[in-house]
Amino acid sequence: MTKENLIHVKINYEEAVDSKKEILSLQMNLLKVLRAIKNFGYLRTDELNQKTNFSKKIKSIKSDISKIQILLPKSEVPEKYKKKPEIKHREIKEKLIEKRESEDDLDMQLREIQEKLRAIGG
């Protein structure tokens, strides 16, 4: 570079000290962020390892349960203890009827309000 391209700026001593302090604090904060990122990486890999171990344990327990189910004798439930599906259908129908009635009631209230608005408006 030639001498013609150089630009000189005068900074007094206090501004220079303040600038150095700010630069050092910025470097310190960046190092803290870097440490936090590394710590997060370690924690994340530990979490993934724990998840894989947990998944393996669940699979082994699942296979053990299926083996036990194969070994145990199968029993049949007598008819009088079995739930009848008609009861569920009745309950569902009753809930649907109640829902329709409440919707009809809301529709009727909406119509009444619309009629009142028409009467007031015109």
The major β-sheet equals: none
Q: Give the mean pLDDT.
A: 84
Number of domains: 2
Beta-strand content: under 5%
Helix content: over 70%
Radius of gyration: 38 Å
Net shape:
flat
What is the number of beta strands?
A: 0
Helix and strand composition category: mainly alpha
- Which residues form runs of ≥5 with pLDDT under 50? none
Order of helices and strands: HH
**Helical segment tally?**
2
Calculate the terminal CA-CA distance, rounded to whole Å: 86 Å
Keywords, please?
122 residues; flat; single chain; mainly alpha
Fold and architecture overview:
There is one protein chain. The chain is mainly alpha-helical. It has two domains: 9-75; 77-122. 79% of the residues lie in helices and 0% in strands. It is built from two helices and no strands. It has helices spanning 13-71, 85-121.
